[in-house]
Amino acid sequence: MWRRSFSAGYRCLGRRRIGPKGTWASRAARACSVPASPAGGISALQALDVWEELFEERGVSEPKHSADHIVAHLLGAKTRESLGRRNLTEILSRERTEQLWELCTRRLSRMPVQYVIEQWDFRDLTLKMRPPVFIPRPETEELVELVLMDLEKTCGQAEEGADAPLTCLEVGCGSGAISLSLLSSLPQLKAIALDRSQDAVDLTRENASSLGLQDRLQIYHIDVMKDPEAVLRLCSPVSALVSNPPYLFSEDMLSLEPEILRFEDPSALDGGQDGLDVIRQILTMAPKVLSDHGRAYLEVDPRHPRLIRRWVEANVEELRYVETRHDITGRPRFCILQKRDIRKGP
Amino acid sequence: MSRLYAVIGSVCDVSRRAVWRGSPSIPPLLALLPAGLTRVFAAGKKDLIDFPVLNEDELEEQFVRGSGPGGQATNKTSNCVVLKHIPTGIVVKCHQTRSVDINRKRARGIMREKLDVAYKGELSEVLVKKKESVLRKQEKKKKAHENLERKRLFKEALVADSKHGNDSV
């Protein structure tokens, strides 16, 4: 019954500004007609059906997952699976229904789900998300695991009673996912995070406060490409340097899906012609910020590890390429390097 | 006899090209313990539980991310993890959370429970606990029933006394 009322209720959205950085008014005009929210009541289950079908019709990627996540979020849950039978079959209030329609309409414009619901999970943390700050990817959760493995060993090996300060530096913190995750897992860790985007710095600060980690995290608005010396002035040697730097090849930027192309900060993605511009800068800087035997951990493009190894061997004497690790899909994804004392040898 | 838990459902978008690979080593407590039945602390549980330790070499993990390059070039919210235990053929699917990492860890926890049942049959932790709970309930019922009986007999005794003209208390 409610399906028929939709076809009768189609209306054009017209110009509309969505989100704090929304600039898709003209796009909205092109891809208008959104079904009016039903006059009669609708249950979450029915709404899921409607929107999954509509997303699919309109070519929105992950139609089912998108609807699931948005509806779950609206009902106070993280996943559809955790919604009880009652939640799903209860008729939604007028207000709730309108909120749901508002959120799903944003998704129609290909706004990433994470921006639509303004949050996402990274490991065991829930972080605020806001365009155009880069959305953490699942691969990066594994980067954190790699760093934790080593840092936990370091803590274990520390002399009893020694209050060895454990610090890490993150270049390009985005929403703060990596640093905050490390801080959350290692109570004795202190972290310094940098980003060249003021939006990212602001968001990281907000997330740090929400998680009660602000006392152990210093955040700076610095561009390592333009001002690497600023980093050296900031901190004394750190045990670990971590980064998920922009690593896409410039030529690949154009073929990105709309979710990324329209909403995420391109400077968080574009690594230059070979995707290595920022990586080279970070690795050049690394020996100057790392303590002896400190390590650098990078997430990179699958084509990079062998290129990075060669480049480091030829250009950064004080760094030893330790190993390449693969991500869950089997792609070479993470590079681990270690500072060596060139006087003492490898 | 091992049971095959066929749990790959339509929730995981298996029409996409999926990558099966030997499980990359993950650094949880599990991986560092010696092989064999060992007492470990299952996260969030108060009891010490004797679940089998997982050997990552015997696991195959599937994470559906499509055929794209992954990493920064992709933004997908699907995070379903499918874990297969090769020797027994047991498959566990987990999409309980929005974090792939957490889903992987939970999948392993569930796998250990299933392996426990598969290996130990009647003696498995899950079944033992179930039996204990059933026994406790039966005990409770029995006691409640006995109490009621006692009360009933007491009442009858009172009535009988009053009939015989005795002063009731």
From TrEMBL, chain A:
Q: Which UniProt keywords apply?
A: Methyltransferase, S-adenosyl-L-methionine, Transferase
Q: Which residues form the Methyltransferase small domain?
A: 168-247
- This chain belongs to the protein called peptide chain release factor N(5)-glutamine methyltransferase
Q: Give the source lineage, highest ranks first.
A: Eukaryota, Metazoa, Chordata, Craniata, Vertebrata
User: Native species of this protein?
Assistant: Scophthalmus maximus (Turbot)
The chemistry this enzyme catalyses reads: L-glutaminyl-[peptide chain release factor] + S-adenosyl-L-methionine = N(5)-methyl-L-glutaminyl-[peptide chain release factor] + S-adenosyl-L-homocysteine + H(+)
Task: Tell me a Gene Ontology molecular-function term this record carries.
Answer: peptide chain release factor N(5)-glutamine methyltransferase activity
What's one GO BP annotation on this UniProt entry?
methylation
Asked whether the keyword Transferase is assigned, the reply is: yes
Q: Say yes or no: keyword Cytoplasm present.
A: no
TrEMBL record, chain B:
Q: Domain Prokaryotic-type class I peptide chain release factors, which positions?
A: 54-153
Keyword match Protease: no
Q: Keywords in UniProt for this one?
A: Mitochondrion, Transit peptide
Q: Which GO terms describe its molecular function?
A: translation release factor activity
Q: Which Pfam families match?
A: RF-1
One GO cellular component term, please give it: mitochondrion
User: Where in or outside the cell?
Assistant: Mitochondrion
On the tree of life, the source organism's domain of life is: Eukaryota
Q: Which InterPro entries match?
A: Mito_Transl_Release_Factor (IPR052405), Pep_chain_release_fac_I (IPR000352), Pep_chain_release_fac_I_sf (IPR045853)
Give the matching PANTHER family: MITOCHONDRIAL TRANSLATION RELEASE FACTOR IN RESCUE (PTHR46203:SF1), PROBABLE PEPTIDE CHAIN RELEASE FACTOR C12ORF65 (PTHR46203)
Q: State the similarity comment.
A: Belongs to the prokaryotic/mitochondrial release factor family.
Q: What name goes with this protein?
A: Mitochondrial translation release factor in rescue
**What organism does the record attribute this protein to?**
Scophthalmus maximus
